[in-house]
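Predict the 3D structure for this chain.
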Amino acid sequence: MALIPGSKKNPEEKKAAEDDVLLREIDDAVREDQYLEFARKYGRPLLGVVIAALLAFGGYLFWDSRQEAALEAQSERLVAALDQADAGNFDSADKTAATLADESTGGARAAALLLRAGIAMDQGRTDDAAALYAQVVANKDTPPALRDLASIREMAANFDTRDPAEVIGRLEPLAVPGNPWFGSAGELVAMAYLEQGKNERAGLLFGEIARSKDVPDTLRSRARQMAGLLGVDAIEDADAYMEEQRLTDGGASAAVR
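Done. Predicted structure below.
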């Protein structure tokens, strides 16, 4: 019987196909050996790196939780000291705040020192208060806003014994419109100008404070009166000012009755 064309491969084609299968098997075996060798050489170091990364991440999570817990504990102690001060227990409040200040840093420490300084002021210990405010100012970890506040309070604590030039040098950078402490710092700087006999500069600064919408009304009222005494008209709207005075006087009269 005649063979059907293509039903059998010639010997060369069969040999080539067998060689191709053998090469693929050898290639697979070589790759497997390479993987095993790589695993033997680098498996342990890589596993160590992975474990170290996981431990580091877990450590960060633990540290972060501890930080939050510490901040929460500091806040609770500060609130406790404030509650004690509000209740009139100044000695207990001062002791709690002193411990917090010794054991904390940054904003928590600054807040505790500010509370201690406020207690000292209430008790008439102005030198102690000024020294505590100075600690807040000197600490570079204190948030800038609290440092500025402490600087103002330090100058105000014993203003009468301060050199006017020192008050101006410390607070003049804060006594500018737009600064959050413009009113408080500006009032002290203006008073220091008066001490130096610079009435015109004092009057102009009082006028700026009186016209500022960002300054508390009580401070604006004081500044307006001082500006008027120094010959500076700080009233922008006379009608509004008269209405404000009428309401103020009416409220005071009602309170008297």
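The longest helix spans residues 11-86.
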